[in-house]
Design goal:
Rossmann fold; six-stranded mixed beta sheet; single chain; 6 strands; about 45% helix; alpha/beta
């Protein structure tokens, strides 16, 4: 946990993700990334010089009309004195039963973002923390390049003027393998996704492509991140927007 926490602190400080008085909503799906993020920020809060509040939000898609069991997450939030809201949604019903989307991930992401933004504002938050890690960033860059011919990625910090909300991604210096090791070693509970599209996405294809390319081009993911920082692609460099 200490190594992962140090990577989180490095990202937070490099991109000025946290300021005194912030109230940060952690988007908790129950997967390994969001759970690791929640615990890292909860531990960071104990010693970080800037004082901030934490809360957690879970948007339950209600797969097959049934809510998931988030009781283990509730226990962790009680232990760390974190306000936790589980919000039932109709995501599964709308996307898979009504719309019968052939590409469900795109619509789901848009709908989840809207719900998350509104819920965070209702809870009095000014920032939302997302669990994207270094692998996600490298994959997103390649997906945008190959599919749309765009050299861009999500930003470490982004501002939503319509909602007056900041989105922060404190795990962007951590590899997915770093997170997996911590989750396994610390026995952090996770809620397995029941999404019918899980592991059948364009992102999974890109993940496998990077694994193949890294056999010939070692540390490709780190090189992609370094290139984005050097070129200040999507504000990955240090500038007035970070």
């Amino acid at each position: 946990m200490q190594k992962l926490l140090s990577l989180v602190r490095a990202a937070v400080e490099k991109y000025n993700m946290i300021e005194d008085g912030d109230k940060i909503a952690v988007c908790v799906s129950g997967g390994k990334d969001s759970m690791a993020l929640l615990l890292c920020l909860a531990n960071l809060k104990r010693f970080y010089p800037k004082q901030f509040e934490l809360c957690a939000i879970t948007l339950d898609p209600y797969f097959n009309g049934e809510g998931a069991d988030y009781s283990e997450i509730q226990k962790i939030c009680r232990e760390y004195n974190i306000e936790y809201l589980i919000k039932p949604t109709e995501l599964y019903h709308i996307i898979f039963e009504v719309r019968k989307e052939s590409n469900p991930c795109s619509l789901c992401a848009r709908m989840r973002r809207g719900l998350l933004h509104d819920t965070a504002k209702e809870m009095g938050c000014n920032k939302i923390a997302l669990g994207h890690h270094l692998d996600d960033a490298a994959e997103t860059f390649l997906m945008n390049l190959f599919s749309g011919g765009r050299a861009e990625c999500f930003s470490p910090v982004s501002y939503l003027s319509r909602k007056d909300l900041y989105m922060i991604r404190p795990l962007i210096f951590a590899y997915e393998s770093d997170i997996e090791r911590v989750v396994n070693k610390e026995n952090i509970p996770i809620v397995k996704s029941r999404c019918p599209a899980d592991e059948k996405t364009h992102r999974e294809e890109t993940k496998e492509l990077i694994k193949t390319l890294e056999k010939k081009y070692p540390a490709l993911r780190a090189k992609i991140i370094g290139a984005m920082q050097t070129g200040n692609i999507s504000h990955w460099g240090i500038d007035e927007n970070c």
